[in-house]
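pasting for the record
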Amino acid sequence: MKDLKIALVGGGPSALFMVKKLLDADIDFLSIDIFESADSLGKGMPYSIKGALESHISNVSSDEIPPLIDTLENWIKLQSEQLLSKFELDKSDFHNKEVVPRLLLGSYLENQFAKLILIGEKRGYTLNVHLNSEVCDIEVNNVDATYSILLQVDKFEGFDKVVICTGHLWPKKEEVKVAGFFNSPYPPQKLNKVFNHSVALKGSSLTAIDAIRTLSQANGRFIKQGKRLIYQVDNNSEYFKIVMYTLDGLLPSVRYHLGDPLAFSQYMMSDTQIQHHRANSGGFVSLDFLFESNFKMLLKKCDPDFYKTIADKNVDLFAQWVLSSRKGFESFTLLKIEYIQAGQSIRVKNTIPWKKLFALLSYSINYPAKYLSGEDMIRLHNILQPLIAIIIADIPQSSAQQLLALYECGRLDIIPVDKTSQIQILNDHEFHYYLGEDNPTAQAHIFKSFIDCTGQKPYAIDDFPFTSMFENRPVAHARVRFKSNENAVFLLSQGTQHISLEEDSFYYLNLQGFAINDYFQFLYADGSATNNCFMMAVPFISGFNPDYSGFDFCDQVSTIIVEKIKADRTTILTPREH
């Protein structure tokens, strides 16, 4: 029997969970090649030096990581005091709710990958690891439908299946041309230096928190005074300051006690129920249906008092209500309140049900998002996602404490802006920040350094690096149909972009990246699927997968892909009788 040869392009967390699920599936005659551009497996960008310094903290605890060989908690308790002291971690009181430094988490993921490879080899599988091996292109053999993986100086042929696991991408477009301009704070080493002037940050996501940690550690130090944390700037950074430009001046929530991560997932709508809903809704999945079923009805079970306050609210009204309540506080006042509330939640081990359920709602929308109507997709982007970005980001407690310390000593400010705010590049180290249309007369703010911290951006098909895959057959762009042509025409008249009238006489909302099916296979322009190639690189499928869901995404999607691979393998070995 011929081996089933699978290539994983990228060796980070997505590939880690793919290998775990492939081994769990117990597929006969399996061969896996893993191509990773870095010098180690499992870490990807966030958990390696490409995305973190020793001071950067993860926002995931041991009990939130889907099952691998060992739990993070057990692995840490087996590590040397020498290693843990480097990260100021004491294993004697470590518990499964504690978040850890990202580089330490990366070491854990690398260890788990190594154990999985040993397990696979003991079972008789072939696992080939190609480190420091950046894939330049992927070719398709049209004769036998196999794939070839091209490196700079080598070529590997004959793969039956390919899974794209390339993860985060942080291009340096302006950065390579303009001194003082940073398209992202990654890798953080580039910011780990003296900035004896004000630095502008756009955005308030966890990406911004990373930038603040890097900058503050390089230009001063945090000192514990009793229960209070203070910040002391270095002598050569007298004029150092961080100015954050955030949408409406909002910061993400502070991490609280999460309880059992799976406690409410059993009540979520099943795929069968969602498909039944689609069948009765013209093929669409309604955003209101998901909000009612996967949030409000669950909230009614676990927090009936809070449910009463939002019982009459749909998606739009709920999002407006929560955002308005947050806008009612000055940014750092709210941060301090939430820091205290979150600390109390952790101490007494009492979760905040609505926030937990809201995170589950965000996750549950991700998979059926491709079946939203154009109207609902716009609502998701304009109304729900700004709230999702704030509520589920979870600033770690230590990061919130540092933000407050920086603010209290005058080294951190927040300036509210609207969606039209922008940075203008005048020259090296000369940037003007304009607050947006709501502030048309406001004078530009002038900076010598600027960092874009708005997080991972979606990518277009034209940015996809492996161009040979589709040179003979065009692939489909992600898009969703409007329920009503009248709605689409009205939105066009209001200036809404990326709407087009197609040959079938329906209007569509054009999204970023590739169209994929439920198995995460690319779709060709004619609607058929690329049966042997799967896509887990979220920046290229964000149109149909709007939520960047971390380990949960890796676990769920690898399960779906491996089930499809195994089903295809079974069909080949035992063909149906006709």
